[in-house]
Amino acid sequence: MGHYTGAKARINRRLGTAVFENAGALRAFEKRNVPPGMHTRRKKPTIYGLALTEKQKIKYYYGFRERQLRKYFAEGRRRKGNTGENLLVICECRLDNVVRRAGFTGTRPQARQGIVHGHFQLNGRKVNKPSIMVRPGDVITLRNRPNLHKAYRDIVDNHSSETCDWISFDDKELKAVVTSLPTYADVSLPVDVNQVVAFLSR
């Protein structure tokens, strides 16, 4: 599954939210938090345009394409409860998001790259698919290679990790345990998910 590799600061400015967390994109967004482009006058966004923006936030924040989003949306519809909340909870359960939320990396693209390159183990087995869905009790560790431990030790020591109630992270052993499934309250992305549901239901 492909993911966006273009100018991240422009996406942050276009969506009005820091969906990309790397230092350069955040600095650019703080400096100019207006949409990119030559002309400052903007037309009033349509209902369709607003819903599209909310949908794009989810895609860029979690790092997947339209097909993957619609797959998660279909799964969220099948589950009991609010479809939009189910959608975001499913996104939160992706392995690359868990690696980021635990504190192994500073950004989701960094987490995705590490997983694809085989840096991580899930329950003692090497994994290379960022889209794997975690479950309560899953244990995420680094492979037993000194160079990997040194590299991720530097990342952990230089990044302040956000509090995440459903993941227990041991920063000394570099080990994360999924203690429970996330809830809608655990989602850190500011998005109007009801608009996303209406957009995808068209």
UniProtKB/TrEMBL annotation:
Residues annotated as domain Small ribosomal subunit protein uS4 N-terminal: 3-92
Keyword Nuclease: no
Record PROSITE patterns: S4
First and last residue of the signal peptide: none
The organism's place on the tree of life at top rank: Bacteria
GO biological process, alphabetically ordered: ribosomal small subunit biogenesis; translation
GO molecular function annotation: rRNA binding; structural constituent of ribosome
Assigned GO CC terms: small ribosomal subunit
HAMAP family linked: Ribosomal_uS4_B
NCBIfam families recorded: PRK05327.1 (NF003717), rpsD_bact (TIGR01017)
UniProt subunit comment: Part of the 30S ribosomal subunit. Contacts protein S5. The interaction surface between S4 and S5 is involved in control of translational fidelity.
Similarity field: Belongs to the universal ribosomal protein uS4 family.
PANTHER family per the UniProt record, alphabetical: 30S 40S RIBOSOMAL PROTEIN, SMALL RIBOSOMAL SUBUNIT PROTEIN US4M
This protein's name: Small ribosomal subunit protein uS4
Taxonomic placement: Bacteria, Pseudomonadati, Planctomycetota, Planctomycetia, Planctomycetales
